[in-house]
Design goal:
249 residues, binds 2-acetamido-2-deoxy-beta-D-glucopyranose, elongated, MHC_I/II-like_Ag-recog, six-stranded antiparallel β-sheet, disordered N terminus, alpha+beta, Immunoglobulin-like, 29% helix, glycoprotein, transmembrane helix, five-stranded antiparallel β-sheet, Ig-like domain-containing protein
Length: 249
């Protein structure tokens, strides 16, 4: 390794692209998982042409090298107390204030799901009926959907999808319950979400499937009306046709 090549510059966060296709990236990554930001960690890697040579890790309080060149330079940077102190300060001055902004602007926001319970498959007496409980347009994605039958949590016969991203920051989820209907029973879908003060219960009302019957009735009346009208039209056409005098050619 030539002496010249050995010195890596540590720039401020930047991405440089040179004309002949090289890239140098020095992103500023702030990682944390606790709401009080106490576990905030700053990582500043030096990535040249997609290779991570070395990075600053605030938990270690120093640079770590990953290649020969990176290790050489990490040692060099680690002998510069001013640079190390400046990066350590960035945890407080850059990471935490920015994380606070994201908390108040995004992470602390909750949007209530819109929940619907509907019958997907009726029971024919031998095969179970299937209900679907759908929660739409909620945030954050963490949600719990369970079923209650006569006040007792249903353990089996429940299948649930993952929380699915709508692509616009909202999520949806669908839970299915298979059961043999019994008269006088009470079935409900229970949804727990950060936007609710307490778990919300959505009762399944079998009379809600009545619109299905009225749809069938409307469809059937339409069909009968259509048959009557076409028959009337056909008879009218036949009468007209028979009234015509056919001239032999
Ligand atoms: C930073 O260093 C700590 C302590 O060794 C380690 O637990 C953590 O995984 C490192 N972070 C990254 C992103 O490598």
């Amino acid at each position: 390794m030539s002496k010249l090549l050995k010195i890596l510059l540590f720039l401020l966060p930047a991405v440089l692209h040179t004309a002949n296709g090289h890239s140098l990236a020095q992103p500023f990554w702030c990682y944390w998982s606790k709401a009080d930001l106490s576990d905030m960690e700053l990582i500043v890697p030096a990535i040249f042409n997609k290779i991570n040579y070395a990075e600053y890790n605030s938990t270690l309080g120093k640079f770590v090298g990953y290649t020969e060149l990176g290790i050489y330079n990490a040692e060099r940077f680690n002998n510069d107390p001013t640079q190390l102190a400046g990066l350590k300060d960035s945890v407080e001055t850059v990471c935490k204030p920015n994380a606070g902004i994201y908390y108040s602007a995004i992470l602390s926001k909750t949007v209530e799901p819109q929940v619907k319970v509907k019958l997907v498959k009726k029971s024919d007496g031998t095969h179970p009926a299937r209900l679907m409980c759908s929660a739409y347009r909620f945030y954050p994605p963490q949600i719990t959907v369970t079923w209650m039958r006569n006040g007792i949590k249903v353990e089996g016969d429940v299948t649930s999808t993952e929380e699915m991203a709508d692509g616009d920051w909202y999520y949806q989820i669908h839970s299915h319950l298979e059961y043999m209907p019994e008269s006088g029973e009470q079935i409900s879908c229970v949804v727990q979400h950060a936007s609710f003060q307490k778990p919300m219960e959505y009762k399944w009302d079998p009379s809600m499937s009545e619109p299905d019957k009225s749809k069938i009735a409307i469809g059937a009346s339409g069909l009968v009306l259509g048959i009557v009208l076409s028959a009337a039209g056909f008879i009218y056409y036949k009468k007209k046709a028979s009234g015509r005098i056919l001239v032999p050619t």
